Amino acid sequence: MNWFDQKTWEFINTFSGWVSGVGSLFAVLVALYLARQDRRVKIDISADFITVIGPMKSPKETIGIRLFNPNRRIAQINLICWVSKIRRKGFLTQSFEGDPNLPVQLKDNEEVVLTIPENHMLNNLREFNFLLGAYPKLMIHFIRVVAVTSGGKKFMAKPGPKLRKWILQTPPGTKQ
């Protein structure tokens, strides 16, 4: 029993060029997409209390902002600040003790931890409470630490749970 005759097969074979062309185009688009994935700037950022252990010093706990570059492209961080996702009125820039000073360049798979002394953070709490507004226990969930690259991309993360708790439990004399 012959399902298709010669003319039917010739008609079906006219589509083979189109199907292979569309398949080739799709393969090129996927390859270009995958090639660009590594070239994008991506920064993993986190902020919380960290334990610093130095030579011949006892361990001390301080506030640290960790920046990690998982991609193969060099990223330059020009600014680190705190913002509120709800109150868009302002932001609080962050300064750090010792080296490294901003801007910081991160090569592929490189990490840097910038430390903030607790007394420096206490001095900034009045400005920080401006971001928290009248309802700090609610607004603390909308506070983000932001790293801004030289290309203008912003990478945000919530502060860690210990840091959020510390901000809410600061002595009353340091608040507005």
How do the helices and strands line up, and which of them pair or pack?
Elements: H1 6-13, H2 16-37, E1 44-52, E2 60-69, E3 75-84, E4 91-93, E5 104-106, E6 110-116, H3 118-123, H4 125-132, H5 136-139, E7 143-149, E8 154-157, H6 161-168
Antiparallel strand pairs: 1-2, 2-6, 3-4, 3-5, 3-7, 7-8
Rg over CA atoms: 26 Å
Low-pLDDT regions: 172-176
Q: Into how many domains do the coordinates divide?
A: 2
Query: How many strand units?
Result: 8
Highest CATH level, the class of the largest domain:
Mainly Beta
From the coordinates shown, what is the CATH architecture of the largest domain?
Sandwich
Q: If helices are DSSP runs of H or I spanning 4 or more residues, what is the number of helices?
A: 6
Q: H/E element string?
A: HHEEEEEEHHHEEH
Shape: elongated
Structural class: alpha+beta
Characterize the quaternary organization of these chains. single chain
Percentage beta strand: 25-35%
Question: Cα distance, first to last residue?
Answer: 92 Å
Profile the largest sheet: 5 strands, antiparallel
CATH topology of the largest domain, anyone?
Immunoglobulin-like
| Mean pLDDT over the full residue set | 80
Provide the helix percentage: 25-40%
